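Lecture 7 notes: from sequence to structure.
We start with the chain below.
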Amino acid sequence: MHPRVSRIRPRRVLSGDPSPARKDATVHLRHRRARLMAFASLGLLPLALLSACSGGSQAATAAEAVATPVYTSDADAPPNNAVLSVASTALGKVVVDDQGFTLYMYSHDTSSPPRATCDGECALTWEPVSAQDGSVTVQGVGQGLVGEVTRSDGTKQMTLGGQPLYRYAPDQRPGDTTGQGQGGLWFAVGPDGKKAAATS
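Predicted structure tokens for the same chain:
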């Protein structure tokens, strides 16, 4: 008699049970898709696709640069930036905003450390100059003098030489200085961050 030979059937690998190599490839693909979606939401998808061939460090660096506010004196700065410049008025040279309106300082505020004290109804007449995302265009004003202070409501207000800046609502035209000397406490600001002139 011949011994009985058992046939060994090859194991069938089901498509639902991928090998470790296939699992790794699938995870890598999912991660890559997630990164591309993130860059697409930031408008950086073309850069992300380009960096796929040369490494992802370039795309990461670009994303950080986009998110970083920069103080600039270039005339072609983004339109949503705050602007400080200098204008000649009856008081001499004063600091004005992007519309040419005179900016003022309040004697009850402090510059060292910066502290803004005009709140509530006061801030309706004397409007705090908003520090927009920390970026500002300066023309005729020392860039190193520009800063910001956090107000009591959590908003950011621009400072010059540490002094919080305000716009006087009753000023009707660019160059008006009707807020000068109001209550003996309000004064137009000069390019150095100090009073532009004595009370008129």
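Points to note: Helices lie at 20-41, 45-54, 57-67, 122-125. The two ends are 129 Å apart (CA to CA).
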